[in-house]
Amino acid sequence: MHMYDYKLLEAFTAVVENKGFERASLVLHLTQSAVSQRVRQLEEAVGQILLVRSNPPVPTDAGKNIISHFKKVELLEVELDNSLLHKEVSGFTTVSVSLNADSLCTWFLDAVEKAVKKNRILLKLYVDDQDETHRMMKDGEVSACISTRDKPFQSCSCSLIGTMSYKMFCSPEIYEKHFKNGFDINTLKEVPVIIYNEKDTLHKQMFTNAFKTQPSDFPYMHIPDVNKYKDAIANSFGIGMMTVMQCREFLDNGTLRDAFYPHTVQTPLYWHRWNITSLSLDALTNSILKKNMLI
Known about the structure:
Elements: H1 6-17, H2 21-28, H3 32-46, E1 51-52, E2 58-59, H4 61-84, E3 93-99, H5 101-118, E4 121-127, H6 134-138, E5 144-147, E6 156-170, H7 172-179, E7 193-195, H8 202-211, E8 220-222, H9 226-234, E9 239-243, H10 244-252, E10 257-258, E11 265-274, H11 279-290, E12 293-294
Parallel strand pairs: 3-4, 3-5, 6-12, 7-8, 7-9
Antiparallel strand pairs: 1-2, 5-11, 6-9, 6-10, 6-11
């Protein structure tokens, strides 16, 4: 059987995306046995194991290449179908993008709004740390990503979007108690640092800027929600890194203070996308690169 029998590729991708054979069978409206058989047939066709049968199943490197190929073909086929139909009855095209939470909550949706509406794009967004989003691109799980990585992957392009500026913010109460007369590394023993999640390294970059070293020990907490993160800082749970764009209003009205003034962390962001001819990807790319972000 030819290795590019797309029913087999579809079944394999569904198992990975739905984290198991049972859920994949429901999505594909097939029996679990039929899905399992298609995955075995695909592995026999390519002559190697594509799926580690763990819980959930995990694709091998070869399996990730299969998924990447299938998603590219799927995107192109949807756009071809749409172009062959009358404009009024054309369907939507799904484009998967991984991006950081700060971009999503500040500029991203505004940047792509016109492109999404005009080109009938259905966004499938995956949120992760800006230093991690490119891993989904590498594994073929998304067709585009926003990342701090400045080098393109094979068969992909990479363009600078702009730079996001981050500062260490705190409430007026914490500022008056700990930072009014300046700060040093010992201050970190007295006030918790709020971190988005275990992948977040922005605070470490700020420590390097402010202290030229990393503190060996300091109290910290994880709050993996952008809005609740800001609320926690405003309510004096601790200090935390946020974008200047997100907090400019709160600085102006005195709700937040710049704890580590004048230190700033500048984070360049890059747009990665597949190098395929796709009206949807082209539209998103043009909108994002026109943002010319310096924030």
